[in-house]
């Protein structure tokens, strides 16, 4: 693990929340609405400081996001310089400002990555072929099968597989993930030397592979085996020049579609009462920490890519009509205008209180699933 990159990833993750809330903050100030508190994460409060201009900055305990508390933030408040007394257009601008900031940050980061070298996280990730070249290609260990020859040899996820040297014949350089299974099958049952790279240092292990007879026989059991026992994954970095902004937009569209599919699947599982499966399709702070920890082995591009995707995901999740989040508040406000009346404080408190309770329950389930999945 690269501690510096892990810290960078965690700092950037917190900054995404700051940027999101700053959007609300600055839009409120521009439109004459007083801000009472700028909070990172959700209460209970851990630390706070009142600024010279009268608003309070706070750090809180529950890492679900952040908030900006405005003066008179109920829809039907009428006081001077309050959110409630502002016209509908101002409320809409304030509510979508955080989402807009996260989209802008995602676009800037992905454009920069397309120019510096963008990791390919999904199959057929969007590129402009005429202006894209691969600058780095590695075959990494994605998963180590417990009890396999690879596990006994001490291989770990994110090790770079470099070369297999059989007892007889030339060394086989591992250039692509799909090339590994045929190589290991060709020397099944033999003792080979595996060359791999971990933390930028080349290492080797002498490993006796399982025979084809053992592998074939295991396919009929509940514990199928493999010659080596690793699931390889291809890690590529691709660079563009003039097309970098186009690549950024294409990747944003692609990941937006994937995010909506994931949310739809989670909702479907939740509706069927399968809460564990639903929560496994969404990652919380524990999962993000684990991903950044593993990703710190792959370099700064991977960390920046994950942070950019998280920024886009924050924008998407916050624009959905979920009570207590920006999209839920916006949806409730617009619906109330169809009936030509503002939301009452009682209705808002009940609606957003219920939404927060659901969010906390989901957060707890996601955290439990993340701990089991990553630790």
How would you summarize the topology of this molecule?
Blueprint: H1 3-30, E1 35-50, E2 56-70, H2 88-116, E3 118-119, E4 132-144, H3 149-152, E5 160-165, E6 172-173, H4 180-186, E7 191-198, E8 201-208, H5 212-218, E9 230-240, H6 244-271, H7 275-280, H8 285-295, H9 300-319, H10 326-338, H11 345-374
Antiparallel strand pairs: 1-2, 3-9, 4-5, 4-9, 5-6, 5-7, 7-8
What is the percent of helical residues? 40-55%
Indicate the low-confidence ranges by residue numbers.
none
Global mean pLDDT: 89
The total count of helices amounts to: 11
Structural class estimated from helices and strands: alpha+beta
Radius of gyration: 25 Å
Task: Note down, in words, how this protein is organized.
By secondary structure, this protein is α+β, with helices and mostly antiparallel strands. Helix content is 49%, strand content 22%. The protein has 11 helices and 9 strands. The chain has helices at 3-30, 88-116, 149-152, 180-186, 212-218, 244-271, 275-280, 285-295, 300-319, 326-338, 345-374; strands at 35-50, 56-70, 118-119, 132-144, 160-165, 172-173, 191-198, 201-208, 230-240. The strands form 2 sheets. Strands 3, 4, 5, 6, 7, 8 and 9 form a 7-stranded antiparallel sheet that branches. The longest helix has 30 residues, at 345-374. The chain is elongated and about 85 Å long.
């Amino acid at each position: 693990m690269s501690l510096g990159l892990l810290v960078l990833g965690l700092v950037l993750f917190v900054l995404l929340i700051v940027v999101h809330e700053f959007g609300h903050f600055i839009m409120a100030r521009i439109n004459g609405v007083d801000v009472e508190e700028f909070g990172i994460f959700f209460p209970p409060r851990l630390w706070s400081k009142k600024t010279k201009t009268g608003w309070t900055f706070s750090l809180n305990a529950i890492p679900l996001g952040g908030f900006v508390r405005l003066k008179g933030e109920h829809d039907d408040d009428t006081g001077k310089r309050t959110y409630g007394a502002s016209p509908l257009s101002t409320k809409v601008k304030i509510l979508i400002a955080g989402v807009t900031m996260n989209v802008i940050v995602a676009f800037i980061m992905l454009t920069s990555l397309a120019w510096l070298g963008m990791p390919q996280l999904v199959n057929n990730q969007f590129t402009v072929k005429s202006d894209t070249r691969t600058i780095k290609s590695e075959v990494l260990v994605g998963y180590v099968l417990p009890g396999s020859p690879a596990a006994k040899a001490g291989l770990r996820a994110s090790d770079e597989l470099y070369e297999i040297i059989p007892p007889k014949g030339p060394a086989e350089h591992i250039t692509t993930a799909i090339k590994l299974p045929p190589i290991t099958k060709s020397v099944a049952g033999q003792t080979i030397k595996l060359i791999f790279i971990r933390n930028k240092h080349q290492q080797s292990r002498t490993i006796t592979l399982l025979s084809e007879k053992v592998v074939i026989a295991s396919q009929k059991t509940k514990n199928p085996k493999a010659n080596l026992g690793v699931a390889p994954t291809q890690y590529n970095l691709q660079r563009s020049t003039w097309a970098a902004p186009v690549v950024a937009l294409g990747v944003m569209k692609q990941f937006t579609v994937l995010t909506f599919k994931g949310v739809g699947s989670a909702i479907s599982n939740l509706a069927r009462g399968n809460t564990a499966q639903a929560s496994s399709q969404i990652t919380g702070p524990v999962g993000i920490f684990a991903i950044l920890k593993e990703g710190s082995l792959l370099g700064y591009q991977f960390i920046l890519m994950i942070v950019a995707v998280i920024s886009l995901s924050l924008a998407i999740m916050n624009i959905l009509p979920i009570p207590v989040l920006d999209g839920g508040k916006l949806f409730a406000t617009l619906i109330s205008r169809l009936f030509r009346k503002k939301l009452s404080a009682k209705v808002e408190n009940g609606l957003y209180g219920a939404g927060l309770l659901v969010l906390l329950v989901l957060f707890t389930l996601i955290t439990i699933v993340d701990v089991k999945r990553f630790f």
